[in-house]
Amino acid sequence: MTPQEQLDGFIDKFAPDIAATIRRAVAMVSARLPGATILVYDNYNALAIAFGANDKMRSIVCSVAGYPRWVSLFLSNGPKLPDPQGLLEGEGSTVRHVKLIGDRIDDPAVAALIDAAAASVEQPIDPAGEGRLVIKSVSAKQRARRP
Questions:
Q1: By C-alpha distance, which of 8, 2, 63, 6 is closest to 30?
Q2: Residue 127 pLDDT greater than 90, yes or no
Q3: What is the pLDDT of residues 68-82, one digit of tens each?
Q4: CA angle 127, 37, 100 (to 5 degrees)
Q5: Cα separation of 4 and 141, whole Å?
Q6: How far is the first Cα of the chain from the last one, in angstroms, to the nearest whole number?
Q7: Helix (H, G, I), strand (E, B), or coil: what is residue 67?
Q8: Beta strands in the chain (DSSP E)
């Protein structure tokens, strides 16, 4: 099974509306970050799809996380990012998130946050990079993916 087939199977575990949001979010981030290495973590609590310059955690710009009831976009260096619309949530010291509800995926403010996060990391993504997809981990035990 290819990594893309595995990722599709992970996403298919979610309710159709959440799965569709995950797919739209991944497509949107992929378009904003060409050449990114995409790392997939099918964890206990969530499906996390991270985008970075390579397969190291420190290179991650952002990640799409699917939960049973919503999808969030997590952004590296979140506390330092300009957020004039007040979209960022959380109290983390390095990461903040935006819940991708309604038509927020298409909001220019979300695109600006991704661009700011990409500019804030030490190792930028090479737009001419190979853009590979890597399944990093699959938890044997997982919470239900549907409410």
A1: 63
A2: yes
A3: 999 999 999 999 999
A4: 95
A5: 21
A6: 28
A7: coil
A8: 37-42, 47-52, 60-66, 71-76, 95-99, 133-138
- The answer to whether residues 80 and 120 touch, using CB atoms and an 8 Å cutoff, is yes
Q: Are 25 and 73 in contact (CB under 8 A)?
A: yes
Burial (CB < 10 A; 0-12, 13-18, 19+), residue 106, is exposed
pLDDT of 57 over the 90 cut: no
Please state the rounded mean pLDDT for residues 102-113: 96
Q: What is the C-alpha to C-alpha distance for residues 126 and 55, in angstroms, rounded to an integer? A: 13
Residue type, 47: L
> Whole-angstrom Cα distance, residue 116 to residue 86?
14
Residues 85-105 have a mean pLDDT of 96
Q: What is the mean pLDDT of residues 43-63?
A: 95
Both tokens assigned to 131: 């853009």
Q: Checking DSSP bridges between strand 37-42 and strand 133-138, what pairing results, if any?
A: parallel
Percentage of the chain beyond pLDDT 70 is 100
Residues in the chain: 147
Residue 83: C-alpha distances to residues 65, 72, 86 (Å): 20, 16, 5
Which amino acid belongs to residue 40?
V
